[in-house]
Write a structure and sequence with these properties.
Blueprint (H helix, E strand, L loop, with lengths): L11 E4 L8 E7 L2 E6 L12 H4 L15 E3 L5 E3 L2 H19 L4 E5 L5 H15 L4 E3 L6 H11 L17 E5 L3 H4 L4 H9 L3 E5 L12 E3 L6 H14 L5 H7 E2 L1 H8 L4 H8 L3 H13 L3 E5 L1 H4 L4 H15 L8 E4 L18 E2 L3 E2 L3 H11 L13 H6 L9 E5 L3 H4 L3 H9 L3 E6 L11 E4 L8 E4 L4 E5 L12 H11 L11 H12 L11 H6 L3 E2 L25 E2 L18 E6 L15 H4 L6 E4 L1 H7 L6 E6 L2 E9 L7 E5 L13 E4 L6 E2 L3 E7 L8
Parallel strand pairs: 6-7, 6-16, 8-9, 8-12, 9-10, 11-22, 12-13, 16-17, 17-18, 23-27, 24-26
Antiparallel strand pairs: 1-2, 2-3, 4-5, 4-18, 14-15, 19-20, 20-21, 23-30, 25-26, 25-30, 28-29
The structure holds iron/sulfur cluster.
Length: 704
């Protein structure tokens, strides 16, 4: 039970502010204290919450909360200002930048935690009010490889094409590069039920994570070798006669090209590339091959690589060869991370996309959305730069000079963060909307205090593609406003008030639904009332009488032929591999008691008491070679710079690999070191693999 001093009228059913589980919770007030409890009536978490959810209310009246706009004054200091002053300054900044450098010199950067209404409005704001083609969001760093692979193979990107309850009835699950027992613990109830039902879990991860510790088989692969592992397993599935020929002939296309490549990944070769022993490969292939209901789930491990799309396609190939995809309790899915990582990538805050998962280069899509927005189709800008490319070009001749940032903290969460921090310093004008003065907001010229999850209403789309409604439980403090209000107010100052004139947030949702009508992610049959009455509605939902679509591939896939597509994939090395100077792999991830860049969770005492500072998991052998003792601070050094973490010596990590979580700023930010090499299709940076050297560090504090 969590509590914080507040003025809240009664009990409200809402949802957690953090990950894509979007656990149902109830906020209630007694004696001016807000309490959090899990909502047993919500079908996804069934009342369970993790420590992040239990403590979420502590951010609402946190003493470091931003309560007024801040504007940087002539002395270079961020000082309190009125909303009128702040909004006028933003309009001036946008106009001045565009007068000098053109419309595209203003970038708009969003986030995967924004509600659907905000994500939709941010994309519209960029194209209609600011008129820039450069709009993207931090989900580019999260789900873009999975999304691109899903679209190629299935014609559609919905992380899980089935409800989470299907996990409990799969009989063998291959979980790749995910650690839900820390990142979304309430999801583990389904894995526990699966085991109780006689099922087995195989985990693919360089670490023996807490999830891997629950598995029947752990494949501890070398970082960056996912495509080889998937191809090697497919080789053994073929050799064992486990391929579902009937499914292949009736529901897929392109298998022959994949068969030829799989033939070249014989077990000895696969072991040589991946480091996974042949007997474990054979065991995994047998388990999957004998499964009546095989399931493959992908996390960020294989996806956040410069070969992330290929890696994901290779696992999809394996899932398709096993058959059953589209049937209950089987098939391939990816586990979305951020709270609205799914909806955030459907409604137009990506540089190449319009609402409804429409392509921005599709003339029919442009015409449809233009009609909803009340603009000419030719006035909608074309595709712009992806997230990292936008940040990387700040200050360059044809790059970004002014940035509008909301729901994101790229100075901590972007790769190559030392460089990103430098680029932020090169901005002529930066606007940040946030709850707290994040590391990115500290660079801003104007900071806008925005409302939090429990202080406003809106929809989120969870990891299953289920659209849920967050209800407002409390009023925002001070002069805080919602991002919806902020976007509409800035748009009005830029002369676009007519297109940003809504009498409620649900009116934004209704417009979003119209904009998605006929698109891939079709919400047009939804309304807030329908969502609330049904405990959520799965998209696509193309008409008011449509119940929504929990399982989307039962009859056909969303490709032109209706068949799922195989893609031939070969293993290619990561962009940077260990060598004499940088002898170890560095891989990154998350821990239970922190979330993303830590802007919220690093301010909660009960979370920092569990996870106070970054640590580096190192094997005993690697620690001995580097002369590092357990518990000391060490420097991690890559070609991009240096970061500091505390040594945690453990046999749960490969001898050639170091794992560090990414939730901290300053010298504790591991993204100072990560490699911005991008996947050629998804533009996903290679967070999960680079080469690192360990050195002892003389200080005793991470921030020293
Ligand atoms: S699992 Fe995710 S949504 Fe659920 S309580 Fe934890 S952080 Fe919140």
């Amino acid at each position: 039970m969590s509590s914080a001093v507040l003025s809240v009228p009664d009990t409200t059913a809402t949802h957690c502010p953090y990950c894509a589980m979007q656990c149902g919770m109830r906020l209630s007030v007694a004696d001016d204290v807000v309490s959090v409890e899990g909502n047993r009536d919500f079908a996804v978490n069934k009342g369970a919450l993790c420590i992040k959810g239990w403590t979420a209310a502590e951010t609402l009246r946190h003493p470091s909360r931003l309560l007024t706009p801040l504007v940087r004054n002539a002395r270079g200091v961020l000082a309190p200002a009125s909303w009128d002053d702040a909004l006028d300054r933003i309009a001036e900044g946008v106009r001045a930048t565009q007068a000098c450098y053109g419309a595209d010199a203003v970038g708009v950067f969003g986030g995967g935690s924004l509600t659907n209404e905000k994500a939709y409005l941010l994309g519209k704001f960029a194209r209609v009010a600011v008129k820039t083609r450069n709009v993207d969001y931090n989900g580019r760093f999260c789900m873009s490889s999975a999304a691109a692979a899903g679209i190629r193979a299935f014609g559609i990107d919905r992380g899980l094409p089935f409800p989470v309850e299907d996990i409990a009835s799969a009989d063998v699950i291959l979980l790749v590069g995910g650690n839900p027992s820390e990142t979304m613990p309430p999801l583990m109830q389904y894995f526990q039920a699966q085991r109780a039902n006689g099922g087995s879990l195989i985990v693919v991860d360089p670490r023996r994570s807490t999830t891997a510790q629950t598995s029947a088989l752990h494949l501890r692969l070398t970082p960056g070798t996912d495509a080889a592992l998937a191809n090697g397993l497919l080789h053994l599935v073929l050799r064992g006669g486990y391929v579902d020929g009937e499914f292949l002939s009736q529901r897929t296309e392109g298998f022959d090209a994949v068969r030829g490549i799989a033939a070249t990944y014989w077990p000895e070769r696969t072991e040589r590339i991946t480091g996974v022993p042949e007997e474990q490969l054979v065991q995994a292939a047998k388990m999957l091959g004998h499964a009546a209901r095989p399931m493959i789930l992908s996390g960020r491990g294989g996806e956040q690589q410069s070969q992330g799309v290929n890696n994901t396609l290779a696992y999809i190939n394996l899932a398709l060869a096993l058959g059953k995809s589209g049937q209950p309790f089987s098939g391939f899915g990816t586990i979305t991370g951020q709270g609205n990582g799914q909806g955030g990538r459907e409604h137009g805050q990506k540089c190449d996309q319009l609402p409804g998962y429409r392509r921005i280069d599709d003339p029919a899509a442009r015409a449809h959305v233009a009609a909803v927005w009340g603009v000419d189709a030719e006035d909608i800008p074309t595709a712009g730069r992806s997230a990292y490319e936008m940040l990387d070009t700040i200050g360059a001749e044809d790059g970004i000079r002014a940035l509008f940032l909301t729901g994101s903290n790229p100075v901590v969460s972007a790769p190559n963060a030392i460089h990103v921090d430098e680029r932020f310093r090169a901005l002529d004008f930066l606007v940040v909307s946030d709850f707290f003065l994040s590391e990115s907001a500290q660079h801003a010229h104007v900071v806008l205090p925005s409302a939090q999850w429990a202080e406003e209403e809106g929809t989120m789309t969870n990891l299953e593609g289920r659209v849920i409604l967050r209800r407002r439980a409390i009023a925002p403090p001070g002069e805080v406003r919602s991002d919806i209000d902020i976007l509409c107010a800035v748009a009005a100052r830029l002369g676009r008030g007519d297109q940003f004139n809504y009498d409620s947030v649900s009116a934004v949702f209704d417009e979003l639904c119209r904009a998605t009508a006929g698109g891939v992610a079709d919400y047009s049959g939804m309304s807030w009332n329908k969502i609330e009455a049904n405990g959520g509605v799965f998209w696509p939902c193309p008409s008011p009488d449509h119940p929504g679509t929990p399982r989307i591939f039962t009859e056909h896939f969303a490709t032109p032929s209706g068949r799922a597509r195989f893609h031939p994939v070969r293993h290619l090395p990561s962009a940077e591999e260990p060598d004499g100077e940088y002898p170890l792999f560095l891989t990154t991830g998350r821990v239970l008691a922190q979330y993303q860049s830590g802007t919220q969770t690093r301010r909660i005492g009960r979370l920092t008491s569990i996870a106070a500072e970054p640590f580096a998991e190192i094997s005993p052998a690697a620690a001995k070679r580097a002369g590092i003792a357990d518990g000391v601070l060490l420097s991690l050094v890559t070609r991009r710079g240096r970061a500091i973490a505390r040594a945690r010596i453990t046999r749960d990590i490969r001898d050639d690999t170091v794992f560090v979580p990414f939730h901290w700023g300053g010298m504790g930010s591991i993204n100072r070191l990560t490699n911005p090499a991008l996947d050629p299709t998804s533009r996903m940076p290679e967070f999960k693999v680079c080469a690192v050297r360990l050195e002892s560090h003389p200080e005793s504090r991470v921030d020293s």
